[in-house]
Amino acid sequence: MSKILLVDDEKPLVDSLSYNLTKEGYTVLVAYDGTTAVTKAEQEKPDLIVLDLMLPQMSGLDVCRALREKHISTPIIMLTAKGTEVDRVVGLEIGADDYVTKPFSLRELIARIKAMLRRLSASSKPASDLMQIGDVAFNVPKHEASLKGAVLELSPKELELLKLLMSNAGKVLTRDTLLEAVWGIDFYGDAKTVDVHIRWLREKIEPDPGQPFYIKTVRGLGYRFEG
Fold first, then answer.
1. Which of 8, 69, 190, 204 is least enclosed, having the fewest CB within 10 Å?
2. What is the pTM assigned to this prediction?
3. Domain CATH for 144
4. What is the pLDDT of residues 41-51, one digit of tens each?
5. Co-location of 51 and 90 in the same domain
6. Are residues 112 and 164 in the same domain?
7. How many domains does the chain divide into?
8. Which long-range contacts (CB under 8 A, 24 or more apart) does 177-185 make?
């Protein structure tokens, strides 16, 4: 069963969430500060991290940034009492995969956790062989992307997005289509989430991200993968 790391300094919330997730059959790890969270994420290699924004020692944003800099691509659901668009965008830009604003119901959060783990599991199941477009390759059985033969360090969401774009090469995929397919219908974000991840992908696969060769923007519609 999947292993989940809970990171929050509110012990009653952690205890309640830990109890309910354990009942669902998950293995639960706990950290009450940012420094411990980074250490446990490195050592325990959880399948998913639920990360509060406001933490002692290191903020949730700093924890998220530190993990991504260490090339730890574990999916992260960010928890925060803040609800502004700026906070959501910053969290997504540094590598968070989902965003839940406090207060929330435990039932809702657990449903979001289950949905993300289901998508992660589905995306890692073997399908058909290798997709190759230009210098970009996607090994579907390994769920691994490469550029000119060098494996790319991509987050789970970036991998899912690239796989979807490449498997529909030449077709225009709307932002809403990409958002629903990669993040799921229960995701509360908006199309800007897609734009952020497209920008990250371009920085990693495009010869010139400012003049994209592979991922084309179709104004007013969405994106198309070419090569």
1. 69
2. 0.59
3. 1.10.10.10
4. 999 999 999 99
5. yes
6. no
7. 2
8. 177/222, 178/222, 178/223, 182/119, 182/157, 183/97, 183/98, 183/157, 184/115, 184/116, 184/119
